[in-house]
Amino acid sequence: MTKVASATTKDPAAKNPAAMLTDLAHRLLGKQPGELDVEERRVLAGIEAGTIVSRDAADVADERSTFGERLSDRVAAIGGSWGFIIAFSVVLLGWMLLNSDILTHFGGAFDPFPYIFLNLILSTVAAIQAPVIMMSQNRQSAKDRLAASLDYETNLRAELDILRVHQKLDHIVLDRLSALEGKIDRLCAALPTG
């Protein structure tokens, strides 16, 4: 095992990060550094530095989000809840009852039966709420793409680490087999022939 460690420390690529990236890209992915995409570069840089590449997609998305994006998420969360639906239904029912029965008796109905003002308010709310909900859906779609990219990085890192472990084990096994073969050859040579 010390042979493997000493062989890697004497490697000139270990001192030069660009050479190490080139070596890792060629050895592990079979690509030249110019052919690597952003995720592959990040994974190889993490392998080279010995750092962790896995990150929480929600945390990364929150770091990148603007005030408007967070606001659209909040509006969509409130507008898409049962509490909003029930409260809005109560307001609509109250509006209709107030303008149909209660205020009509006193002659003070400000929006009588066809409820034109209510219709205008509902149209305005729908015109504002629809694009905000679409912004939130676009943001969720971007979060999903980010999560897929981070999952790819994590999976690639795990796959490459497993491949590196296999290569190291193969190297160790071959060294051991070579040493055993040498011992067997020496024992065979020491045996009396005859």
Put simply, the count of helices is 7
What is the structural class? mainly alpha
Shape: rod-shaped
Mean pLDDT: 87
Tell me the series of helices and strands, N- to C-terminal. HHHHHHH
| Largest sheet report | none
**Rg over CA atoms:** 34 Å
Distance between the termini: 39 Å
Provide the low-confidence segments as ranges: 1-10
Percentage beta strand: under 5%
Helix proportion: over 70%
Total beta strands: 0
Explain what this protein looks like in three dimensions.
- It is built from seven helices and no strands.
- With 194 residues, it is mainly alpha-helical.
- Helix 2 crosses helix 3, helix 3 (38-49) packs across helix 7 (116-190) and helix 5 (67-79) crosses helix 7.
- The longest helix is centred in the C-terminal third of the chain and has 75 residues, at 116-190.
Tags for this model:
disordered N terminus, single chain, 79% helix, mainly alpha, 0% strand, rod-shaped, 194 residues
What's the structural blueprint in terms of helices and strands?
Blueprint: H1 2-9, H2 17-29, H3 38-49, H4 57-64, H5 67-79, H6 82-106, H7 116-190
Helix pairs in contact: 2-3, 3-7, 4-7, 5-7
Brief digest:
This protein is mainly α.
